[in-house]
Each structure stands twice: as C-alpha cells, then as structure tokens.
Amino acid sequence: MPRLLITKTPKPYVGGAFIRSESGRTFPVSDAAGNFFANIPQCTRKDLRNAVEAAAKAGPGWAKRTAYNRGQILYRLGEMLEGRRAELIDTLVRFGGTKAAAAKEVEVATDRLIYYAGWADKYEQVLGNVNPVASPHFNFTVTEPMGVIGVIAPAAPALLGLVSLVAPLIVSGNTVVALASEKTPYPSILLGEMLATSDLPGGVVNLLTGFRPELVPTFATHTHLRAISAAGLSADESKAIRLGAAESVKRVHCLADETRWLSDAAQDLYAIREGLEFKTTWHPIGA
Amino acid sequence: MIAKSPTAGFRRLFDEVGTVDAVGIEERVAKFTTRSIKKASKVQGLKLAVSMVDLTTLEGKDTPGKVASLCQKALAPHDADLGAPQVAAVCVYPAMVRHARKALGSDTGVRIASVATAFPSGQAPLRTRLAEVKAAVADGADEIDMVINRGAFLAGEFGAMQDEIAAVVEACGDTALKVILEVSELETYDNIRAASFLAMRVIREGDFIKTSTGKTSLNATLGNNQVMLEAIRDFYLDTGVAIGMKPAGGIRTAKQSLQFLIAVKETLGDAWLTNERYRFGASSLLNDLLRQLEKEKTGAYQAPYYFSEAAESY
Question: CA torsion B239→B240→B241→B244, rounded to 10°?
C-alpha cells in the first residue's frame, strides 16, 4: 500500500517556539523548477511586535551569560548545522543552487558561526581599552551590547546571508529579530530548528518570514529596536529605514549588494562592533 | 446535626443565590477576547482604563519616597500632550497612607486606597483589624480594601464572615469599602458567587467587591471577573443597589484590560464603565496602557523604557 505523503508545515522560530502568523496568512513558495513547495507564514507587523517583546525578554539573561558560554553556544549552533548539512544542501539545491555552490554555502555558513564563536571572549580585549589620562584615575573603555537589533536578510544567499548578519550581533549579548529572504524563506525555517536545539535561549534569535514592503516600515519605526543591520535594500527601503531610524534614533548598518558573502572578507571584528555601545568609566586610583 | 455541617450550609446558600455554569462562563469569556477594538474606540478604551487604575504598591520594601513617586505618576501619568487622564487612586499599606496624603495634597482627584484588616491573610484578631481600618481612615484614606475571613467562609460560618464585614463597614464611616474575596482560595465559581452575595448584602451602594490580594498564585481572570459581574448584576436586579467591581492582580497588558472592559460593557452596561463602579488593581498595567496610547498617537511601537516606572524601579 502506498504511504500517504507527510508534508511539513513550515513555521518560523520566534521566542523559542515555532509560530504561525497571528494573521493566519501564508504565501506559497515554489522550488526552482516551479513546483509548489509549501505555504510559508506571512508575518505581519504584529508578529514583529511580538518578536521584539520576546527578544527584549530574552536580552538581559543572554547578555549576562559569560562571554565564554556565549561562545560555547554559538559553537554548538555550528555543530547543529554540521549535523544537518545534507538536508541544508538538498534544500539550497531545491531552490536553485548547484550542488557545489550549495555545499560551499553551507560550509561557509557553518564556519562563520565557528569564527564568531571564537571571538566571543576575545573582542573585548581588542575593542576595549585602558586609556591614558592626565589625572590619578584609571580610565576604562568597555563595550556593552545595544539590546534588540533588527536584521533584514538579503534575498540571496538565503542561509549564509542570514547567518552572516545574525551571528556577529548575538555573540556580544544582543538579541535579534530577523526578516528572512522573501524569495527563499525556507532555509530560515530550517535554521530556526537548529537554533532550537543549540542551547541558545529562546527569544535570542527570532526569525520572521514575510514580505519586505509590509515589514520594513515597522522595522524602521519600532523604537524598541536599537539598530538595524540590513543587506540588499532597494533605494526606497533604504530611505524608509533611514527616515524611521532618524525618528527613533537607531543605528543603521547596510551592507552593499555586491558583498562577497563567501569570502573571508565578509566576516570580521567590525561586524561585531556594529552591535556594541562603548562605555568609558573613570575610577580613582587608590580608592 | 446535618443542618450544622458546612456542606448543608453551602447547599442552602447555593439554592438561594444560584450556582454557576462553569463551562458556560469559560465559553462566554473566551468570546470577549475575540472582539476587535481599533483606532478611536481603542483610544477611548485605553483612556477609560487609565482612569480606572488603582495604582498599587504593596511590598515590604515600600518607602515614603517610593510612595511619593507613585503619587506623582498617578497625578501625571505621562506627558500632558498624550491626553491620558489621572488614575482613579493609589493603593498602599496603612503605614504609607499619610505619606500618600502628603504627596497628593487634600485637593486632588486621585483617591487614596489602603489595604487594611491584616492584609493579605486577614489572620489577626478582629479588634486589631478594626483598629487598622480606623487608623488608615484617620490618616486620610478615601477607600479601604479589606480581606474577608476565608477560613470562616469555607467552614460554612457565613454569619461570622458577614458580621466581620459589617464591623469594618461601621469602622469605615464615610470611607468607601472594597471587599477582597481572594478568589484563588475560594476554589470554585459557585463559592465565588456565593461569597459575592454574602459580601454585597452587608456593604453599601458605592462599595466594591474585589477579586484578589495579588499575593497568591492565581489572580483576576476573565472567568472569575465574569462570575462576580453577574453576581453584581443579579444583586442589582434584586435590590436596586449598585455595587462596584475591582479585579486585581495579573492584569498587566492593555489588551487584557480592554477585554475586562468588554466584559463589563456586555454584562453590566455603560453605567458601570466609570471609575466609580469599576477599577483595576495593578502596578505595571498603567505603563502598558500609556505605551499603547503613544503607539496609537505616533503610529510607532514604543519601547517600555520610554515610560517612567512608578512602582517597580526601586
């Protein structure tokens, strides 16, 4: 007897749970051959609002973890990607990559997590400082995570782009609400499943699927988001983000379209610095 | 002998005041969460909810300074251009009443409510409890929140429970009274309804019944709010005496407060949509209400840290 087909309901990972959109809406996604693949939740601004609440709740606990522990957890996330490597490659091929390109993307995405995991307990030594001052004081500059940060992932590469934007932000104790590639959202659903099994506390990374025109204005104006890290924005989207960010005083970091995601140049300490505030303190010597 | 057992007493009481269809209540209140309230009506609802808040701080670590900042928040919840009204009252321990009176002054629209009668357990001799009520009234409290004797109620000693409430009513004089049933300790909807009736029979028009102390695990829910609203309705239809209602504890979001207001509107009608007959006992609710009002005004979702904290920041 033939088995019944068991198809998966793709659900984005928000607040440590797999959700449907509060609106109940979905949009169909087809694979590269044009065949219907699945209905993906079409998240709304209210889902974004809820995700920000979840991220804000998770923030203090995540930032309070030791740097070493955050590194361990990011490394474990890398382990999860490695363990489901074959599934990730199959998925990327299904949505239009060649086998070799897909394998390369998954490999680089995994290595990028390991790269930032390594930085977890090291960036402070490089970015922080003891400053020379002309009075009997110790003068320290130390870093602090900004808080909740919005990420708008590029259309492609769907997996690597998302990972490259999220990893350097969470390594320092920020929490993230990210909008996945509109064209190829399914890899973000898989990434959510890996996040859920990686010891990462729920709410630290929240992945939404949906349409940019609907969500970009809310990303721009939501005052609880302290910064936006985005890639592949159109001129209009960029303008909307910058106008909204000016109103709510948030930092904007936009990567150019021609970012070479696969290259080592797409990962560096400065990506971590984008999610940090610097605090300088004076401490009297001898006190 | 049978007539004296608690079970028989409860049975007679239930026969008299009626029982509650628990499944029906749950289904009814589930419907309240599906109403769509947007734009102008939402703003109106949010402002109404602000005007019904009893801004509360009931902690061992309360200080005169903390109460003073709570009072400031009660008088001016946010920037004046938001258009949020003053809250109905501040709710403090008896020892803090005089500090609240000093901070609010005598000519103010914000009332001072004080919990009394050995809140939250009520386990003190009656004369001690009455002395506490009188002291709070003498210090300037406009309203007294008392707890009922749950032990007496559960033992079936309804007369004893009512006598104590009547004694507190007398001690209050002109001061309004809110009777806390502590619903989490009454265990069933039937008991909540019965206790509501027992309390309503000895208090006066303009007094309140109140769900909880906020000090136990289960606080105000739409379900027990609804049971008490229906008791108030039935009592009003019987006697013509309008009793107020105050859910307390566990109401933290603006959305929840709107759902409670829908329950009031659809059970008791517009006459109860005033802070003279309906209150929210809450501390963190006010800031969420202000946050949603600001969102309606600006169109942008607001960060909670844009709003001054009244009670939680110490």
Answer: 120
